[in-house]
Amino acid sequence: TTTTTQEKMNDQFIIIAHRGASAYSPEHTIDSYQMALELGADYIEIDLQMTKDGELVALHDHTVDRTTNGKGHVRSYTLKELKNLDAGSWFNEEFPSQANPSFESLKIPTLEEIFQYFGDDVLYYIETKKPSIYPGMEEKLVELLRKYNLIGEQIHDSKVILQSFSPESLNHIHKMEPTIPLIQLLSYKQPAMLTKNELTKLKEYAVGVGPNFDMISEEYIKTARAAGLLVHPYTVNQTNDMEKLIDWGATGAFTNYSDTLYNILKQT
Ligand code: G3P
Ligand code: CA
Asked: Where would I find the H helices in 119-208?
Protein backbone atom coordinates (compact mmCIF):
# COMPACT_ATOMS: atom_id res chain seq x y z
CA THR A 1 0.00 0.00 0.00
CA THR A 2 1.16 3.50 -0.70
CA THR A 3 1.03 6.40 1.67
CA THR A 4 -1.21 9.34 0.92
CA THR A 5 -1.17 12.81 2.32
CA GLN A 6 -4.38 12.05 4.23
CA GLU A 7 -2.74 9.48 6.48
CA LYS A 8 0.16 11.76 7.23
CA MET A 9 -1.05 15.30 6.89
CA ASN A 10 -4.07 15.31 9.19
CA ASP A 11 -3.42 12.47 11.58
CA GLN A 12 0.14 12.92 12.76
CA PHE A 13 2.96 15.40 13.21
CA ILE A 14 4.83 15.32 9.89
CA ILE A 15 8.60 15.39 9.46
CA ILE A 16 9.52 17.58 6.49
CA ALA A 17 13.13 17.01 5.41
CA HIS A 18 14.29 20.58 4.80
CA ARG A 19 16.36 20.44 1.56
CA GLY A 20 16.87 16.71 2.29
CA ALA A 21 19.09 15.49 5.13
CA SER A 22 20.85 18.83 4.84
CA ALA A 23 22.70 18.58 8.16
CA TYR A 24 24.52 15.49 6.91
CA SER A 25 24.87 15.77 3.12
CA PRO A 26 24.76 18.39 0.36
CA GLU A 27 21.27 19.94 0.28
CA HIS A 28 18.98 19.33 -2.69
CA THR A 29 20.73 16.27 -4.07
CA ILE A 30 19.13 12.86 -4.66
CA ASP A 31 21.55 11.41 -2.07
CA SER A 32 20.39 13.89 0.53
CA TYR A 33 16.68 13.19 -0.09
CA GLN A 34 17.36 9.44 0.07
CA MET A 35 19.22 9.83 3.35
CA ALA A 36 16.36 11.89 4.81
CA LEU A 37 13.87 9.13 4.03
CA GLU A 38 16.17 6.61 5.70
CA LEU A 39 16.30 8.90 8.76
CA GLY A 40 12.52 8.84 9.07
CA ALA A 41 11.29 11.86 7.08
CA ASP A 42 7.68 11.83 5.87
CA TYR A 43 8.17 14.47 3.17
CA ILE A 44 11.13 15.47 0.99
CA GLU A 45 11.31 19.26 0.84
CA ILE A 46 12.31 20.65 -2.56
CA ASP A 47 12.98 24.30 -3.47
CA LEU A 48 12.50 25.08 -7.16
CA GLN A 49 14.42 27.32 -9.54
CA MET A 50 14.18 27.35 -13.36
CA THR A 51 16.93 27.17 -16.00
CA LYS A 52 17.32 29.37 -19.08
CA ASP A 53 15.70 26.60 -21.14
CA GLY A 54 12.73 26.26 -18.78
CA GLU A 55 13.67 23.17 -16.75
CA LEU A 56 12.68 23.05 -13.08
CA VAL A 57 15.64 22.19 -10.86
CA ALA A 58 16.08 21.70 -7.12
CA LEU A 59 18.12 24.51 -5.62
CA HIS A 60 17.51 26.88 -2.74
CA ASP A 61 19.26 30.03 -4.01
CA HIS A 62 18.49 31.81 -7.28
CA THR A 63 22.26 31.84 -7.92
CA VAL A 64 24.57 28.82 -8.03
CA ASP A 65 27.35 30.52 -6.04
CA ARG A 66 26.84 29.06 -2.56
CA THR A 67 26.20 25.39 -3.36
CA THR A 68 28.20 24.72 -6.54
CA ASN A 69 31.58 25.53 -8.09
CA GLY A 70 29.87 27.90 -10.56
CA LYS A 71 28.81 31.53 -10.43
CA GLY A 72 25.74 33.50 -11.49
CA HIS A 73 21.99 33.18 -11.82
CA VAL A 74 20.32 29.82 -12.35
CA ARG A 75 18.19 31.37 -15.09
CA SER A 76 21.34 32.27 -17.06
CA TYR A 77 22.31 28.57 -17.30
CA THR A 78 20.89 25.95 -19.65
CA LEU A 79 20.23 22.60 -18.00
CA LYS A 80 23.22 21.13 -19.82
CA GLU A 81 25.49 23.85 -18.44
CA LEU A 82 24.05 23.46 -14.94
CA LYS A 83 24.73 19.72 -15.07
CA ASN A 84 28.45 20.42 -15.46
CA LEU A 85 28.56 21.96 -11.99
CA ASP A 86 29.76 20.16 -8.86
CA ALA A 87 26.98 20.42 -6.27
CA GLY A 88 28.72 18.60 -3.42
CA SER A 89 32.29 19.80 -2.83
CA TRP A 90 31.13 23.02 -1.17
CA PHE A 91 29.62 20.88 1.61
CA ASN A 92 32.89 19.05 2.25
CA GLU A 93 34.70 22.38 2.53
CA GLU A 94 32.03 23.98 4.71
CA PHE A 95 31.43 20.98 7.00
CA PRO A 96 34.69 18.98 7.21
CA SER A 97 33.37 16.79 10.02
CA GLN A 98 30.56 15.54 7.72
CA ALA A 99 32.65 15.47 4.53
CA ASN A 100 32.57 12.47 2.22
CA PRO A 101 34.53 12.14 -1.05
CA SER A 102 31.45 10.66 -2.76
CA PHE A 103 29.72 14.05 -2.45
CA GLU A 104 32.15 15.54 -4.98
CA SER A 105 30.38 13.94 -7.92
CA LEU A 106 26.86 15.11 -7.00
CA LYS A 107 24.84 17.13 -9.51
CA ILE A 108 21.86 19.46 -9.27
CA PRO A 109 18.79 17.27 -9.95
CA THR A 110 15.85 18.30 -12.11
CA LEU A 111 12.40 17.92 -10.55
CA GLU A 112 11.62 15.30 -13.18
CA GLU A 113 14.70 13.26 -12.22
CA ILE A 114 13.58 13.37 -8.59
CA PHE A 115 10.11 12.09 -9.57
CA GLN A 116 11.67 9.39 -11.76
CA TYR A 117 13.96 8.29 -8.94
CA PHE A 118 11.48 8.24 -6.04
CA GLY A 119 8.23 7.67 -7.93
CA ASP A 120 4.96 7.81 -6.05
CA ASP A 121 6.11 5.86 -3.00
CA VAL A 122 7.23 9.01 -1.24
CA LEU A 123 5.63 12.33 -0.38
CA TYR A 124 6.91 15.64 -1.77
CA TYR A 125 6.74 19.13 -0.25
CA ILE A 126 7.68 21.54 -3.02
CA GLU A 127 8.28 25.30 -2.90
CA THR A 128 7.94 27.71 -5.81
CA LYS A 129 10.91 29.98 -5.10
CA LYS A 130 11.06 33.47 -6.61
CA PRO A 131 8.06 32.77 -8.87
CA SER A 132 8.05 36.41 -10.00
CA ILE A 133 11.37 35.93 -11.88
CA TYR A 134 10.26 32.65 -13.46
CA PRO A 135 7.14 33.14 -15.58
CA GLY A 136 5.55 29.78 -16.38
CA MET A 137 7.02 28.05 -13.33
CA GLU A 138 3.62 27.01 -11.95
CA GLU A 139 2.41 25.60 -15.29
CA LYS A 140 5.59 23.55 -15.66
CA LEU A 141 5.28 22.26 -12.10
CA VAL A 142 1.63 21.26 -12.50
CA GLU A 143 2.44 19.57 -15.83
CA LEU A 144 5.06 17.38 -14.11
CA LEU A 145 2.78 16.60 -11.16
CA ARG A 146 0.12 15.44 -13.63
CA LYS A 147 2.61 13.40 -15.67
CA TYR A 148 3.81 11.53 -12.57
CA ASN A 149 0.30 11.08 -11.09
CA LEU A 150 1.05 12.95 -7.90
CA ILE A 151 -2.23 14.89 -7.74
CA GLY A 152 -5.20 13.28 -6.03
CA GLU A 153 -8.87 13.48 -6.93
CA GLN A 154 -9.44 14.83 -3.44
CA ILE A 155 -7.13 17.12 -1.51
CA HIS A 156 -6.34 14.28 0.90
CA ASP A 157 -5.21 11.89 -1.86
CA SER A 158 -2.35 14.12 -2.91
CA LYS A 159 1.24 12.87 -2.95
CA VAL A 160 2.45 16.42 -2.82
CA ILE A 161 2.06 19.56 -0.75
CA LEU A 162 3.04 22.83 -2.43
CA GLN A 163 4.34 25.85 -0.51
CA SER A 164 5.31 29.41 -1.33
CA PHE A 165 5.90 32.79 0.25
CA SER A 166 3.99 34.16 -2.76
CA PRO A 167 0.18 34.13 -2.37
CA GLU A 168 -0.05 34.91 -6.09
CA SER A 169 1.88 31.76 -6.95
CA LEU A 170 -0.33 29.63 -4.68
CA ASN A 171 -3.54 31.15 -6.02
CA HIS A 172 -2.35 30.55 -9.56
CA ILE A 173 -1.78 26.87 -8.76
CA HIS A 174 -5.09 26.63 -6.90
CA LYS A 175 -6.94 27.79 -10.03
CA MET A 176 -5.22 25.14 -12.16
CA GLU A 177 -5.48 22.26 -9.65
CA PRO A 178 -7.79 22.91 -6.70
CA THR A 179 -7.07 19.52 -5.08
CA ILE A 180 -3.38 20.18 -4.40
CA PRO A 181 -2.91 21.04 -0.71
CA LEU A 182 -1.17 24.42 -0.39
CA ILE A 183 0.80 25.93 2.48
CA GLN A 184 1.27 29.69 2.73
CA LEU A 185 4.80 30.38 3.98
CA LEU A 186 5.11 33.40 6.25
CA SER A 187 8.18 35.23 7.49
CA TYR A 188 7.60 37.16 10.70
CA LYS A 189 10.05 39.73 12.05
CA GLN A 190 8.14 40.19 15.30
CA PRO A 191 5.82 38.05 17.45
CA ALA A 192 3.33 36.56 15.01
CA MET A 193 -0.45 36.91 15.04
CA LEU A 194 -3.24 35.83 12.70
CA THR A 195 -6.26 38.10 12.34
CA LYS A 196 -9.74 36.88 11.42
CA ASN A 197 -9.36 38.65 8.11
CA GLU A 198 -6.07 36.89 7.33
CA LEU A 199 -7.51 33.52 8.30
CA THR A 200 -10.50 34.01 6.01
CA LYS A 201 -8.22 34.94 3.08
CA LEU A 202 -5.86 32.03 3.71
CA LYS A 203 -8.67 29.51 3.84
CA GLU A 204 -9.77 30.47 0.34
CA TYR A 205 -6.77 28.63 -1.12
CA ALA A 206 -4.52 27.15 1.58
CA VAL A 207 -4.77 24.18 3.94
CA GLY A 208 -2.23 25.68 6.30
CA VAL A 209 0.60 28.03 7.13
CA GLY A 210 4.37 27.65 7.34
CA PRO A 211 5.72 30.34 9.69
CA ASN A 212 9.29 30.83 10.96
CA PHE A 213 9.19 28.98 14.29
CA ASP A 214 11.04 31.58 16.37
CA MET A 215 8.25 34.19 16.24
CA ILE A 216 5.22 32.00 16.95
CA SER A 217 3.46 31.18 20.21
CA GLU A 218 1.12 28.50 21.47
CA GLU A 219 -1.71 30.99 20.93
CA TYR A 220 -0.71 31.46 17.28
CA ILE A 221 -0.85 27.72 16.70
CA LYS A 222 -4.15 27.30 18.54
CA THR A 223 -5.71 30.15 16.54
CA ALA A 224 -4.65 28.61 13.24
CA ARG A 225 -5.77 25.12 14.31
CA ALA A 226 -9.15 26.44 15.51
CA ALA A 227 -9.64 27.89 12.03
CA GLY A 228 -8.91 24.44 10.57
CA LEU A 229 -5.46 25.27 9.26
CA LEU A 230 -2.36 23.09 9.51
CA VAL A 231 0.79 24.66 11.02
CA HIS A 232 4.21 23.60 9.72
CA PRO A 233 6.93 25.84 11.24
CA TYR A 234 10.44 26.13 9.72
CA THR A 235 13.35 25.43 10.26
CA VAL A 236 13.44 23.54 13.55
CA ASN A 237 16.77 21.92 14.37
CA GLN A 238 16.99 21.91 18.19
CA THR A 239 15.43 19.18 20.31
CA ASN A 240 13.83 21.60 22.78
CA ASP A 241 12.17 23.59 19.98
CA MET A 242 10.83 20.40 18.40
CA GLU A 243 9.37 19.27 21.73
CA LYS A 244 7.83 22.68 22.39
CA LEU A 245 6.14 22.85 18.97
CA ILE A 246 4.73 19.33 19.31
CA ASP A 247 3.42 20.27 22.75
CA TRP A 248 1.83 23.46 21.40
CA GLY A 249 -0.10 21.53 18.76
CA ALA A 250 1.83 22.22 15.55
CA THR A 251 1.09 19.61 12.87
CA GLY A 252 4.59 19.20 11.40
CA ALA A 253 7.95 20.90 11.05
CA PHE A 254 10.71 21.51 8.54
CA THR A 255 14.04 20.23 9.87
CA ASN A 256 17.60 19.53 8.73
CA TYR A 257 17.62 16.68 11.30
CA SER A 258 14.82 14.27 10.38
CA ASP A 259 16.41 11.66 12.68
CA THR A 260 16.17 13.87 15.79
CA LEU A 261 12.52 14.69 15.13
CA TYR A 262 11.75 11.04 14.33
CA ASN A 263 13.24 9.91 17.65
CA ILE A 264 11.26 12.49 19.62
CA LEU A 265 8.00 11.50 17.92
CA LYS A 266 8.69 7.82 18.58
CA GLN A 267 8.84 8.52 22.30
CA THR A 268 5.65 10.61 22.51
O1 G3P B 1 10.04 26.27 2.86
C2 G3P B 1 10.09 26.44 4.24
C3 G3P B 1 11.44 26.90 4.52
O4 G3P B 1 12.27 26.06 3.79
C5 G3P B 1 11.59 28.31 4.06
O6 G3P B 1 12.87 28.64 4.13
O7 G3P B 1 14.62 29.66 2.84
O8 G3P B 1 14.87 27.31 3.60
O9 G3P B 1 13.30 27.86 1.77
P10 G3P B 1 13.95 28.34 3.02
CA1 CA C 1 12.00 25.92 1.31
From this structure: 137-147, 167-176, 196-203
Residue nearest to atom 1 of ligand 1 (CA): 127
ipTM metric: 0.97
Does residue 172 carry a catalytic annotation?
no
The alpha carbon of 222 and the centre of ligand 1 are apart by a number of angstroms equal to 22
Side-chain-side CA neighbours of residue 77 (13 Å): 23
Q: Is the dihedral of CA 9, 14, 15, 19 positive or negative?
A: positive
Query: Residue 80, SS3?
Result: helix
User: Which residues lie with the beta carbon below 6 Å from any ligand 1 atom?
Assistant: 18, 47, 60, 127, 163, 185, 210, 234-235, 254
> Any catalytic annotation for residue 73?
no
Ligand 1 centre distance from Cα of residue 60 (Å): 8
Digitized pLDDT (tens) for each residue of the chain, 268 residues in all:
455 565 666 668 999 999 999 999 999 999 999 999 999 999 999 999 999 999 999 999 999 999 999 999 999 999 999 999 999 999 999 999 999 999 999 999 999 999 999 999 999 999 999 999 999 999 999 999 999 999 999 999 999 999 999 999 999 999 999 999 999 999 999 999 999 999 999 999 999 999 999 999 999 999 999 999 999 999 999 999 999 999 999 999 999 999 999 999 999 8
Residue located nearest, by CA, to atom 7 of ligand 1: 60
